[in-house]
Amino acid sequence: MIIKVKVPSPGESITEVEVSTWFVKNGDYVDKGKTIAEIDSDKATLEISAEENGVITLMVKKGERIRVGDVLCLIDTSKSSKNQECAEKIPKKEKELYLENIKILSPASKKILKEKNIPIEYVKGTGKDGRITKADCILFQEEKNSFSEPLSVPRSKKITPLSSLRRKISERLVSIKNETATLTTFNEVDMQEIFIIRKKYKNVFQEKHGVHLGFMSFFILSCVRSLQRYPDVNAMISGEKKINFEYCDISIAISGPKGLMVPVIRNAENLSFREIEQEINNLSIRVQNGTISIDEMTGGTFTITNGGVFGSMLSTPIINPPQSAILGMHKIMERPVSIHGSIEIRPIMYLALSYDHRIIDGRESVGFLVSVKEHIENPIKFLMGGSEKNIPSVLEL
Hints:
Blueprint (H helix, E strand, L loop, with lengths): L1 E5 L9 E7 L6 E2 L4 E6 L4 E5 L4 E5 L6 E3 L3 E6 L5 H8 L2 H10 L5 H10 L17 H12 L18 H16 L2 E9 L1 H18 L5 H15 L5 E4 L2 E4 L5 E3 L1 E3 L2 E3 L2 E2 L7 H16 L13 E5 L18 E5 L3 E7 L2 E15 L5 H16 L1 H5 L7 H4 L3
Parallel strand pairs: 12-16, 16-17
Antiparallel strand pairs: 1-8, 2-4, 2-7, 3-6, 4-5, 6-8, 9-19, 10-11, 12-15, 13-14, 17-19, 18-19
Helix pairs in contact: 3-4, 7-8, 7-9
């Protein structure tokens, strides 16, 4: 029986996709449920799985574009793979030799080539069927050492077409530069009070709720309150109109196997520390396993990105359109600072706010960033009801 594997729809507005990766080749035997390919749309990457056991025939080449609903490949459920058929015809003793001979290199040969950085194409194999032996590698190294001229290693380059998703990202980044008046303002924040709270409550928080008490929940809640004080930072331009959002849908940048994804935490103004951390955990899992949906990555009103997880000390984040502002967090470093006339070592983070100057003025941008700084440096006062006694109830412990 021939099974037609068709291209699924990644979303309502998407009619065409690109085959970005094949994990199988013609004639391979595949098991039902095995991932056989990945397709890219303008907004997301989807995995395609085998619908039945059988031998696969590819219909579309890598890099080709194909319409939603077209046939991607065929699976013949009545056949086994060519390799499997070949191996089944070989007697048991000969099968072991057959499997051994398909290896190019012995483990010892591979080790020598890797350690001595010898290109495989320079070594002539004298073993059975041209197999490269350990002695071949040693002989080549001895002959090479006898020459005064250095070994000329060929240099090459690999050219790979951009995926549909990467091309779309490129277009968006260029459009941001051309269509917005982007500025970035900076500040620094003392993380000591956050450190104290997390050190005291993070273990019991995780035991009670099953998730970490991270920095992101503090920053999201600080941004929510600051957005409410400076509503133009939580706005966007539509034609000749300005749209102010009375809710805070916070986009958070999460790095995944396919690159940076930006899922949205809806109505963050109504969420607690526990709810935010659980939502971050759920979104992160779906980004990592590739199950995040397009709907979960659209509609944000403000974005937070944390380059500090990669070691970035300072950067100018790029606005996530059609939003008008993005907050960049960075690596926390111990630095000497002046505290009431005395020099102390404190954990300091640089913050960067990139914003569209067409809709946000300097007063709003600087005021917003100062407000975030105040909330982070005084979390008990601004985020936890003004008293340390309130912390357990705020954290729902």
